[in-house]
Amino acid sequence: MTEKNGHSGIINKADMLDKVIESCEQNLTGSMLRSSVQQIFDIDLNKISERGDGRIQPSYPPYIIEGVSSDPAADKRIMKMKKADVMDAFIRTKGGKTSGSEIRQVINDIFGINLNGISALDHLKISLYSKGQWILKKETDLFVIYTGKGDIDVSIYPAPYFIEKTGYSQLPDDLQDKLIRLGYSYNDKMAAFYYLNPDGETVSDNFKKQTITAVVSSVQHYL
Would you tell me the crossing angle of helices 100-111 and 83-93 to the nearest 10 degrees? Predict the structure, then answer.
């Protein structure tokens, strides 16, 4: 399967991960999965786990809790575990057999990393910094989405290439308007549009999606 965004012949990274998972049959382990994610996406889940980074939330979804322990009172104990250990326990419970789509959901719900979204953004001239590392970054990127620890805050600003090619040091007016409607405001010190989740938790997947949709819509004008 190839990308459908004018990049024929380029393998979608999510599909590449699916093929690896399928090839493991019933022998998939958390360690193997994290190694594959690093090879394909260049995202070090082990390092994220060791730093205690990733999704900040009061509890994992019920299916994760149930997949790690049959003890209904295990919620608090599981939340104190390293995220890599939670992943390992979940995959062991599944007997090492699971689908690519389920694994990507598990990674998102444990680590807060949306591999589907990252795969879709791979060729859209957007730099993405998250979980203490550059997830996507190219010299010809136009805009930057930069998230702080735990993805509780987000900054968006023009990339150097955009400034060089357009002569503008600010985001396009239409993108500014869209971000303001989402709750962003301009931060002079950062020279970026900034949002901080008042709940102190990772911003919701829906908010991330709305943000990325707004940025992508502006990128389309420059492709």
Answer: 150
Cα distances from 213 to residues 32, 74, 173, 208, in angstroms, run 32, 37, 16, 8
* Residue entry with tokens 């599944």: 94
pLDDT tens digit sequence for 64-116: 999 898 887 788 899 999 999 999 999 988 776 778 889 999 999 999 999 99
Pairing of strands 143-147, 126-130: parallel
The pTM (predicted TM-score) of the whole model is 0.84
Distance (Å, whole) CA 163 – CA 158: 7
User: Is the sign of the CA dihedral 190, 109, 131, 149 positive or negative?
Assistant: positive
Residues β-bridged to residue 128: 136, 145
